[in-house]
Amino acid sequence: MTNIQDILAGDRLSLSRILSQIENDTSEGRSALGELFPHTGQAHLIGITGAPGTGKSTLVNQIAYHYRHSEGEGEPKKVAIVAVDPTSPFTGGAVLGDRIRMQSLSSDKGVFIRSMATRGSLGGLANATAGIVQAFDAAGFEIILIETVGAGQAEIDIAHLAHTTIVTEAPGLGDDIQAIKAGILEIADILVVNKADRSGVESTERALLNMLKLAHPVKRIFSHHSRPATNSPQPSENDSPIWIPPVLRTVATEGAGVPELLDAIAKHRAYLQETGELELRERARLEAELDNRLQNTLVDRWRDTLKSGQYEKMLDELVARQITPYQAVQTLLNGGKLK
Amino acid sequence: MTNIQDILAGDRLSLSRILSQIENDTSEGRSALGELFPHTGQAHLIGITGAPGTGKSTLVNQIAYHYRHSEGEGEPKKVAIVAVDPTSPFTGGAVLGDRIRMQSLSSDKGVFIRSMATRGSLGGLANATAGIVQAFDAAGFEIILIETVGAGQAEIDIAHLAHTTIVTEAPGLGDDIQAIKAGILEIADILVVNKADRSGVESTERALLNMLKLAHPVKRIFSHHSRPATNSPQPSENDSPIWIPPVLRTVATEGAGVPELLDAIAKHRAYLQETGELELRERARLEAELDNRLQNTLVDRWRDTLKSGQYEKMLDELVARQITPYQAVQTLLNGGKLK
Question: Which of A151, B107, B125, B190 is deepest in the core (most CB within 10 A)?
Answer without folding.
Answer: A151
